[in-house]
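Q: What structure does this chain adopt?
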Amino acid sequence: AWGLGGAMWQGVGDEEGTRALREAFDSGVDFIDSALVYGEGHSESLVRDVLRDRKGSRVVVATKIPPKNFVWPGEAATPLSETFPATWVEKCVETSLRNLGTEALDLEQFHVWQDAWLDSPDWDKTRSTMERLKRDGKVLHWGVSINDHAPETALRLASDPLIESAQVI
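A:
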């Protein structure tokens, strides 16, 4: 749903985006991929508005946490404290929950990843926050979005039992 954001990447207007979502769901699409950074949450809000009108439909919505420093792809030399500190992860989850108008995110993913970040002393705090958000029912599943030119950047993370999804760009 990146094109629904209308910013950062070339997208479509709200009317066309809404029509496209409705047609997709009417045709049986039951999974949509969005991200907090797509239009600074606008994509998530548009998905929310369309799903609100679809009582009884079950659509799985995946979204993603952008790196705090907004650098794509992630750089191994960058400290985890500049990409996914625990406070940033929680803030992004709460923002996406509001944008999507839901009590739980079906799938929350890291928008970039570098396995070097697992060696950071901050990783324990970030992972503990992820576990708590899942235990509290705010995030049902955790995942990672992997760079298609460097899938090895998330192999260690993908082996963590908390990570249940690996999306290749």
